[in-house]
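haha ok so turns out i had the wrong file open the whole time. this is the CORRECT one, sorry everyone. sequence first:
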Amino acid sequence: MNDPLQRLYYHDAYLTCFEAAVAERLTWDGRPAVVLTQTAFYPASGGQPSDRGLLGGVAVLGVEVRESDGAVVHILGDELSAEGVVGEVDWARRFDHMQQHSGQHLLSAVCERLLGAHTLSFHLGAESSTIDLSVARLPRQEVEAAEDQVNRAIWENRPLTARFVTARELAALPLRRQPQVEGPIRLVEIEGYDLTPCGGTHVARSGEIGLLKVVRLEYRGEETRLEFLCGRRALLDYRRKNAILLDLAAGLTVGYEEAEAAVARLQEELKGSQRELRTLRERLLQADAAALLGDAKPIGALRVVRAVLAGRTPADLRALALRLSETPGVVALLASPGERTQLCFACAEGSGVDAAALLRRACEALGGKGGGQPRIAQGSAPASVEESLRQIMVALEGSLP
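then structure:
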């Protein structure tokens, strides 16, 4: 279907209902599919997703162009038996894509004119759209200036037109970018702003774009990616973010205009609380270590700390075991019961004891698992092992040199 006359969307993007005959039936990626004598369904191309809708009452799941001959293939949700069909394009999806694609043309044109940034690629996603620009970094203020100019052009309600031209006509036109295909070239023009080759669907006047909002900047090496929303997408994004802001302000019992300052105050208070908590934890760690060292059992040249401590996390046990092992000659055998019993063994440097070997013995006896280094090792065992744990730790203690 290379003939532009058979691709009805080229001439009327607002056409959503049409009649056609089935020219070919085939299977496409394991699904039934058809080629029609003419179609208003836009196939995935040029960064724009395909249309969806119904064909003879059967769902159209996607539309693609067959590379071998340019035929437009309609991928269906079920078999289509009729020879003559009525096609119905999902208008909400079509118009959304028209808004995003037309907005992209304006944004690309303004970025080139105002910022000297060429558009390298465009992607129209299900939730947002992006363009990649040929500059490494763009200050936010410059992006906002481009955004302002785009929206002025939208509100001026400028006409958008599409037409096919010959190669000879093309050579004399001031295109924003050169065509990537051969044959008849379709140009889309936004009055006073842009003239570029494009086969996509577009609004008739810029006012139908409604609004364009750049929502994110991403620096990608020598390129900058702009993520943007147009029309209803921009409205829904504003509605969602406004609701979040109002809920946040209500939770902080401030007006929405004071929410940013209130959050900043809370962040500073949190940093102070975290510093205080670290200090208190350090003091508690010192106190716990001193108490356990006071109960350490001498075995030859070693001092063994054996303790089952309730309510300690693996990180707590590790910190305490490391602190204990800072004392020369100390071997720490610590455990904390819970959903799984946590184990942490540590040995002072030069003690001649291998913490990892002790842990392996304990895990074998308790049905647990773990690992580590000669200095410190951690693991866990099933929850119902407390008495066995005590016996194993006593046995480990007895095995020390």
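The chain has three domains: 4-89, 95-239, 296-399.
again sry for the mixup
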